[in-house]
Write a structure and sequence with these properties.
By secondary structure, the protein is of the alpha+beta class. It has helices at about 10-65, 115-125, and strands spanning about 95-100, 105-110, 130-140, 140-150. It folds into two domains: about 10-65; about 85-150.
Length: about 150
């Protein structure tokens, strides 16, 4: 059986088109293969991160187990003491002035040096923070001026 003479005769333009089409198909196949490999690598890394996170959580749960209160037991929450400027007149300290503001206020005390440190702890118990303070000597005592803000204020 003999093939026709024209089947081998392909023009240069058609040969270039055919070569370009084959190259395009090969390039698309290569891109698809590479994307699949990247996706597999990403999935393996994600699975490894999930296993590592599970081990991390299990380690912390082993080290720091949650403490559950026994049935019927109540949690002990210390009572919150309300702030009152009059509460600072004790053991030699004298309230000179109190100027309230919307976020706290200014408290001025005449106090001995030993009372200065305890004043900070009393304020902390009453959910107050000292934003600024000044100590000046006056008539043999210390004038302790504080600008106070509520603990929940920024």
């Amino acid at each position: 059986m003999r093939l026709p003479d024209g089947w081998r005769a392909v023009s240069r333009l058609n040969a270039l088109r055919l070569t370009g089409l084959m190259a395009l198909l090969a390039g698309c196949g290569l891109c698809f293969y590479m994307m699949k490999q990247v996706n597999l690598t990403f999935e393996k890394g994600n699975e490894a991160r999930q296993r590592q996170h599970a081990q991390y959580v299990a380690g912390w749960q082993r080290l720091m187990p949650l403490r559950v209160l026994p049935e019927g037991a109540e949690s002990v929450v210390p009572p919150v003491v309300a702030f009152s400027p009059a509460a600072f007149q004790q053991a030699g300290a004298k309230l000179v002035s109190w100027q309230p503001s919307d976020k706290g206020g200014e408290l001025v005390l005449d106090t001995p040096w030993l009372q200065v440190v305890s004043t900070f702890s009393l304020l902390a118990e009453r959910d107050m923070q000292v934003a600024a303070f000044a100590l000046t000597g006056e008539n043999g005592t210390l004038r302790f001026t504080m600008r106070l803000v509520h603990d929940d204020e920024p």
